[in-house]
Write a structure and sequence with these properties.
about 375 residues; two-stranded antiparallel ribbon; 13 helices; 4 strands; about 60% helix; globular
């Protein structure tokens, strides 16, 4: 696109820049989130021997919420200056949707884990990637390229393989259906969370954990499905802090830069960790169908990580609040006093046009 053509298209500023990609740290955070979550399925399967599924789901989210609340109080006591934007009433619909879906999803997953081997349930969790991507594309208009579609295709194939008890009989297992239902709920929830990712991730995890946790707790009490085993309850709460609280925190930070679909794709490493733990702790046999799905999953992951997206694009005028710095090519506003490093305040973006590699982060949600 030449300069005259850009002017004819109504761009207010023309600036071709080469910006250092922020994707690498975000990818590492997504993988870290996956590693933390990967331990949840096999260990949950052990704890489910003494804890009913709805109560287990409640404990995992309560552990996440209370654990991150403690982290928040530590930050406050240390007088650490806040650099993140708070959730406002404008984001309330996404907060409510996130909580409701987070109540349903883990209950479905816990029920599925009681009926399906941990390694199958772990890899079947990758259907969440497909659900997240499709919802992001059709409802939230997130851009998904050819390589990402290939990744979705291979990941879908691997989930189909893992959805059957026996490849020869092609009979679907009840446990697999519950896990897939959980993935669909999480697909919607991931997109709700993505709309909140501009805000303080610590606050989001606290709201998500306590809201979803108490909701699940009410359901477990109504159904009279709970446990009084203090040891198992304590272990479940701690597992919730590690596998849900910290994992969700890093997941949200990754979503800021990568968008919902891509973050979920990198998150695909979680089931492989779950399978390894299942094999080591639960002594569950690794089947041929699992190995086949594993191979197909690797192909899908390759297409996901090798995607590059860059073109000339327009930025409309907008005003919002989030943590930022002035070194990324998108924050050129002035301060009365010189500010360096990351900070947070309400700021305006001028309309501009430039070209660089980018992901569907909060500044690149343009149409294609």
């Amino acid at each position: 696109m030449n300069i005259s053509r850009v002017f004819l298209n109504g761009c207010f500023r023309i600036k071709k820049v080469v910006i250092r990609s922020k994707a690498t740290p975000a990818i590492l955070m997504a993988i870290l989130a996956a590693a933390l979550y990967g331990i949840s399925s096999p260990i949950s399967k052990l704890l489910l021997k003494k804890i009913p599924p709805p109560f287990m789901a409640a404990l995992l989210y309560l552990g996440a919420g209370f654990g991150m609340l403690i982290v928040h109080f530590v930050n406050v006591c240390s007088k650490k200056a806040p650099t993140e934007a708070k959730i406002t009433n404008k984001e309330l619909p996404f907060v409510i949707g996130m909580i409701i879906l987070d109540i349903a999803a883990p209950i479905f997953l816990m029920v599925g884990l009681t009926m399906a081997p941990a390694e199958n349930a772990s890899l079947l969790n990758n259907f969440e990637i497909v659900a997240t991507a499709l919802i992001a594309l059709f409802l939230f208009k997130e851009s998904i390229g050819k390589r990402m579609w290939l990744a979705i295709l291979f990941i879908t194939l691997s989930t189909i393989i893992l959805s059957v008890n026996d490849l020869r009989s092609l009979s679907f297992s009840v446990g697999s259906i519950f896990v897939v239902a959980a993935c669909i709920c999480w697909g919607f929830e991931n997109n709700c969370t993505r709309m909140l990712s501009i805000k303080n991730p610590l606050q989001i995890v606290i709201v998500k954990g306590l809201g979803s946790g108490f909701g699940s707790l009410v359901i477990s009490l109504v159904l009279k499905e709970y446990s009084k085993n203090l040891l198992y309850i304590s272990l479940a709460l701690f597992l919730g802090f590690i596998a849900y609280g910290l994992s969700i925190y890093f997941y949200i930070k990754a979503q800021r830069e990568l968008g919902a679909a891509r973050t979920s794709t990198y998150y695909a490493t979680a089931p492989f960790i779950g399978v390894l733990i299942s094999w080591l702790i639960l002594k569950e046999i690794i089947t041929f169908s699992f190995l086949l799905a594993f191979f197909i999953m690797i192909i899908g992951a390759y297409y996901a990580v090798s995607e590059n997206h860059g073109h000339s694009h327009n930025h409309e005028e907008m005003t919002h609040e989030h943590k930022h710095n002035h070194e990324d090519g998108h924050h050129n506003h002035k301060h009365i006093n010189k500010i360096t490093g990351e900070h947070c305040h309400v700021h305006a973006h001028e309309a501009m046009c430039h070209s660089h590699l980018h992901t569907p982060d909060l500044h690149h949600r343009h149409s294609h």
